[in-house]
Design a protein that fits this description.
- By secondary structure, this protein is mostly beta strands.
- 10% of the residues lie in helices and 36% in strands.
- It is built from 3 helices and 12 strands; from the N terminus they run H-E-E-E-E-E-H-E-E-E-E-E-E-E-H.
- Strands 2-1-3-12-4-10 form a 6-stranded antiparallel beta sheet, with no helix packed on it.
- Strand 8 and strand 9 form a beta hairpin.
- The two termini are 25 Å apart.
Length: 172
């Protein structure tokens, strides 16, 4: 049954930015690569660990439901950086060029260390700008994000462990 869920998740759709045409098109989660720019709409799940560029709110905030990650039902508020918050329409991405340097993939769900190099400046990144795979966008029309980790490198997958055996050593 697990592989069936994997196939279902891998074939979910997300909007990805196409540099050539300057528009978003629908693609499957499994086709996403690190560095891809995506648009996630209200009540959709995040397809990978994303760096939050901007949201439908002018101040760049968004609300995230993390029930699948930590069992908590309260919404968490995430903030984009002030410098990327104005990137709120498709045309603004045509000139957008940035580099993200960050920690290697790890299982720490509530920490993130990285730096955004943009406009000849450096900006520190924290977990406040990271949207984790399998959490859901709520009370926000859309967000724009950049894929930081995908597939087995996402924090959720790194965190997944096999359930402990309930059989005694003697029984085994």
């Amino acid at each position: 049954l697990k592989w069936f869920q994997d196939i279902e998740a891998n074939n979910r759709k997300v909007k990805e930015y196409d540099n050539k045409s300057g528009t978003f098109y629908e693609t499957k989660w499994k086709k996403l690569r690190v560095g891809d720019l995506v648009k996630v709409c209200k009540d959709e799940y995040f397809p990978a660990d994303l760096f939050l560029l901007s949201s439908s709110h002018e101040d760049g905030i968004c609300h995230v439901e993390t029930t699948n990650l930590d069992g908590e039902t309260n919404l968490k508020v995430k903030h984009s950086l002030d410098v990327t918050a104005p990137l709120r329409d498709e045309s603004s991405f045509q000139k957008f060029k940035a580099v993200i340097k960050c920690e290697d993939p790890n299982e720490e769900l509530f920490s993130f260390i990285g730096t955004l190099f943009y406009d000849d400046q450096e900006f520190p990144l924290s977990i406040q700008q990271i949207l984790l795979r399998d959490s859901k966008l709520r009370n926000t029309d859309y967000i724009y994000g950049v894929v930081v980790f995908t597939g087995h490198d996402t924090k959720v997958m790194k965190n997944a462990t096999d359930p402990p055996s309930k059989r005694s050593k003697f029984e085994r």
